[in-house]
Design brief:
Strand content: 25-35%
Distance between the termini: 37 Å
Bound molecules: cytidine-5'-monophosphate
Number of strands: 11
Number of helices: 11
Structural class: alpha+beta
Order of helices and strands: EEEHHEHHHEEEHHHEHHEEHE
Largest sheet: 7 strands, mixed
């Protein structure tokens, strides 16, 4: 009899806006952000096994950057759900990696969320969504939103998640082989007495309406200035996307990835063709 297995997709996210409200006593920052899942996915497969182990596969430039040991968020997720599930056993967790690592696209958080859902099923834990969300919050600030799956308005340190309605949008993505660690980006924001962006209400309304022309100029990320100051190539990527005809461009999360918004799929292909290394994404994915 072959081992049973469960497969889940882990979707990269884009922060359509990221507003940092201020530092908190617990070391985190209060924020507001609209995130959308995208067509860029990792595949997470879990199988019955004697012990817990994580195997990361994929192109060397992406898979090679993922820690397979204690810092791997999928392994952290497996240990956390194991504590909460009386039927927990071993499992082999295989991650087919395509999402750039530490690129502000939430890949590690998405892998962790997919691992929670897959092991809940493989082990027959039957944990309800609220319990899974509690576990997710302890793994990382972005994991509850990735668990929820759809477009979402995040607040608090990111763990408060409200579903948002966003029409399908098309993007050109520029990613780098280096990442930016979120603790660094937030610390730089503190040191700079960083900015807090505008009320996102007009942006949310435009995103719900699917009005890419109105969304483009409203995209913003309060972490951009401090990351651009240390990594000029990220600022350059934003300029290149705009020069290539994107309706707007913004860094995702704490970087290093940058996305340019297009009016549709064909326009996204035109923009991507004009920027070295750019790839086309939809987010939220077109049906
Ligand atoms: O929650 P997570 O482990 O992803 O956060 C990593 C680090 O990023 C935190 O320890 C903190 O330094 C920073 N962070 C923050 N405010 C947030 C989210 C993350 O300062 N809302």
């Amino acid at each position: 009899m072959g081992a049973r297995q469960v497969i889940r997709e882990a979707r990269a996210k884009i922060n359509v806006f990221l507003r940092v409200l201020g530092a908190r006593e617990d070391g985190y920052h209060d924020l507001e952000s609209l995130i959308v899942p995208t067509s860029l996915v990792d595949a997470v497969t879990v199988k019955d096994a004697d012990a817990l182990r994580v195997d990361v596969r994929g192109p060397a430039w992406v898979a090679g950057a993922v820690p397979a040991g204690g810092l791997n968020l999928a392994l952290v997720a497996a240990l956390a759900i194991g504590d909460a599930c009386p039927d927990a056993r071993g499992a082999e967790i295989v991650i087919e990696k395509r999402i750039p690592v530490a690129g502000g696209l939430g890949g590690g958080s998405a892998d962790a969320a997919a691992t929670l859902l897959a092991l809940n099923e493989l082990w027959g834990c039957a944990l309800d969504p609220a319990t899974l969300a509690d576990i997710a919050e302890r793994i990382g600030s972005d994991v509850p939103a990735m668990l929820a799956g759809g477009p979402a308005l995040m607040s608090g340190r990111g763990e408060l998640v409200a579903p948002a309605e966003v029409a399908p949008l098309w993007w050109a993505l520029v990613h780098f082989e280096f990442g930016v660690r979120s603790p660094d980006a937030y610390r730089w924001w503190d040191e700079a007495g960083g900015p807090t962006g505008p009320d996102p209400e007009p942006l949310l309304a435009a995103a719900t309406a699917g009005d890419a022309g109105a969304v483009g100029p409203l995209l913003f990320n309060d972490l951009e200035p401090v990351v651009f100051a240390r990594h000029p190539q990220v600022e350059q990527a934003k300029a290149s996307l705009l020069q290539a005809g994107a309706l707007g461009a913004v860094m995702s999360g704490s970087g290093s990835s940058v996305v340019g918004l297009a009016s549709g799929e064909e326009h996204a292909r035109e923009v991507a063709a004009r920027v070295a290394g750019a790839v086309v994404l939809s987010g939220p994915p077109a049906p």
